[in-house]
Amino acid sequence: MRNICFFFQIHLPFRLKRYRFFEIGQDHYYYDDFQTEDRVRNVVEQSYLTANRTIADMIKSSNGKFRCSFSISGVALEQLEQYAPEVIDSFKELAKTGSVEFMTEPYAHSLSSIFDHNEFEKQLKLHSNKIEELFGKRPTTVFNSEMIYSDEIGEIVSKMGYKAMLVDEAKYIMGWKSPNYLYSHSYLSKLKLLIRNHKLSDDIAFRFSDHSWNDFPLTAEKFIGWISSLPEDEKLINLGMGYEILGIKQHAGTGIFDFLKALPYHAMEQQINFILPSEANKKLDPASNLSVPYPISWVGNDKDLTPWTGNDLQQEALNKLYAVGERVRLCQDKALQRDWLILQSSDHFRYMSHKDAYNTNYDSPYEAFINYMNVLADFLERVDAQYPTTIENEELNELLKTINNQEKEIEELENEIKKLKTRKAKKTE
């Protein structure tokens, strides 16, 4: 049977306030709370609540056969908890249906998988803990920030015990291969790769309301017809998009919610199933392995990292930020640790892009750079006050080794306690 794997991504960055040079060393609060809350309320009212109700209706009307997954960044979850707890409640209700799965990603929606592998691992663990705490189940699938992937990143993810990862369809990587199969990591067969079908995904995300598009209007029957007409052995169609597509990019007046509601009916009519990433990993066999020697993303035509690293401004900011990673991880200052997370969100660096400063609130990339670097200068002063740059790297490494060993011992003991509790529970049954 052919399977559709629907997945949505949610990320909301904390907005930085206008932070001027003379405030460095004087003001350690960097955020524009009004702008952050306004952005959250806007996207919640126009998109998330209606979309969640729609998906709940789809699950109910299909007797649980419609299934989809979400990747929601940790900083987005924090904002929803603070400004729109009703959205968290609605996600919890979706989780209870058993038809919705939550994936993990770097907590801050950061670029740590490229610049700081220790930080990447830490943020995946932090985010997985948050997902388990809120929704009751630990993720097994990784959706990296901006769907960034390479063989090296996949190796890190696999060694951490995750079973699958989402990857975008880049033609120069895929070559003649179709995205409509399950694949595996190039040399670690345990890690499965789900390749996003960018054409079919973008038909919904970006072309749905485009009157100049040759296939306008797009109906559910037509869309499912396209999937049904694919070669018979192409069993897995991965459809992924930002959740705000539903209600903002494609506003309610376009008919996007009616389109979505009709999909399960037409899919079942054509004997097309809906599947979760964890189910695809268990039920399907990979067609082959996939080699991705350098990082790709899901943005733009080039599918590379240039939206965040493409100019000198971005590289300067990223290098200065990640240069202090080891020192920050040694700090016990909770406020400093929180700022470290928020300042890593990939959005800050995209605002500095000359080509694609998506969703920026700055007048120019240079203005975004200056504002961020002023904030970063104050942050770095605070880090230096706790762990001065005069401390030798060897000394830092020894401290880190001790801390990491302690964390591993604690984790092993916690796992042992869980096993003992499980055994005890079984004996008393």
N-to-C SSE series? EHEHHEHHEHEHEEHHEHEHEHHHHHHH
Which structural category fits the helices and strands?
A: alpha/beta
Largest sheet: 5 strands, parallel
Terminus-to-terminus distance: 40 Å
How would you describe the shape? globular
Q: Mean pLDDT across all residues, rounded?
A: 93
* Radius of gyration, taken over Cα atoms and rounded to an integer in Å: 22 Å
For this entry, what is the oligomeric state of its chains? single chain
**Uncertain stretches:** none
Which class of the domain at 2-290 in CATH terms? Answer: Alpha Beta
Please count the helical segments: 18
Helix content: 40-55%
Strand content: 5-15%
Q: What is the CATH topology of the domain at 2-290? A: 7-stranded beta/alpha barrel
Second rung of CATH, namely the architecture of the domain at 2-290: Alpha-Beta Barrel
Total count of strands: 10
